[in-house]
Design goal:
By secondary structure, the chain is α/β, with parallel strands linked by helices. It has twelve helices and eight strands.
């Protein structure tokens, strides 16, 4: 009887234990990595397999949905999310030269070289340096959009350390792939505003434009999301520098052709920024990769698509755990 009581207590305590272990409100810490300091959060047990999440253009670590992070942690992963350089609480490149984004974008469109203060491979070096600082030798990598481009470089730099690669709504950067509309590009580049109210409206407009046509956005909710981002950190010049890093990047097809890391490519059929052929092209050039297309998914982590995304990603991550465990907490 005492054994049964103890067993019942343990079973009833599992959800509470998982919730405590996977608290997404852990403090944000700083790590010095070469020339930059990176703000990061580590969620879960240090002994669990590490999952490094790399955010896209202008995105902060808070833009990974908390409920998604918690679910990944509850599946037995130590989730590490961080601010890339030039956004959030990480180092801003104040010494960078003035940027004429219109001029550089024009050079990109006609196939000329683009100047950038740093590249995506430098940002991959930041991410690898963070894992070095945390003492994590091997880890899984999940990157979204620009974060997926950084993740490609990370897997190329240190293939022996990346246990699996998950690339969401990203691109190979090859010429000839479908381009977004000029209107969307203008919204993406339009980050400066004379006051907070206009900055929030601009960000809400961008979020709406990146959303799925199958989902009706709540404008007030978009403004709340914009407000959280703005109040944590607002650095439009940094976002422009990140965009230059993307524009300055040559095609990564040769890089993708040499990758041998277990890879899952996830893309939405309604992505307005990187249309679906970008994901198809990435998968076609990574030997042995798996491609999963999600109907209606655009270029945001909207509520309606969180479960389909988790359903796509979790089996891949679990299949490549080296501890052999499948946590169901």
């Amino acid at each position: 009887m005492r054994v049964l009581i103890l067993l019942a207590a343990l079973l009833c305590g599992v959800p509470a234990f998982a919730a405590q272990r996977c608290d997404v409100q852990v403090p944000t810490e700083m790590a010095d990595v070469g020339e930059v300091s990176l703000a990061y959060q580590s969620i879960g047990r240090n002994s669990d397999p590490a999952l490094l999440m790399v955010m896209g253009l202008g995105g902060q670590l808070i833009h990974w949905p908390d409920e998604v992070v918690a679910r990944l942690c509850q599946q037995g992963f130590r989730v590490i999310r961080f601010d890339n350089r030039d956004v959030g609480l990480s180092t801003w490149t104040h010494a960078a030269p003035a940027i004429n984004l219109t001029y550089e974008a024009l050079r990109y469109r006609v196939g000329l070289s683009v100047s950038a203060p740093y590249g995506l491979r430098d940002m991959a070096g930041d991410a690898l340096g963070l894992m070095d600082t945390l003492g994590v030798r091997q880890f899984h990598v999940l990157g979204a959009s620009m974060g997926g481009m950084i993740a490609q470089h990370l897997a190329d730099i240190a293939p022996e350390r990346v246990q699996s690669l998950t690339l969401i709504m990203t691109s190979s950067g090859a010429q000839g792939l479908p381009a977004p509309s000029n209107a969307l590009l203008a919204l993406l580049a339009k980050r400066e505003a004379p006051n907070r109210a206009l900055a929030l409206e601009q960000q809400a407009d961008l979020l709406a434009a990146l959303g799925s046509p199958t989902v009706t956005d709540d404008r007030d909710l978009l403004l709340q999301q914009a407000e959280l981002s703005y109040d944590r950190a607002f650095n439009p010049e940094g976002v422009q520098r990140q965009l230059l890093a993307i524009l300055a990047e040559p095609s990564r097809v040769e890089l993708l052709n040499r990758l041998r890391v277990p890879t899952l490519v996830v893309h939405g059929t309604a992505d307005p920024l990187l249309p679906v052929m970008h994901g198809v092209h990435v998968a076609a050039h990574i030997k042995g990769s798996e491609l999963k297309l999600i109907p209606g998914l655009a270029h945001r982590f909207q509520e309606a698509f969180k479960e389909p995304l988790l359903a796509a990603v979790l089996p891949h991550l679990q299949a490549h755990r080296q501890d052999g465990h499948w946590a169901q907490l």
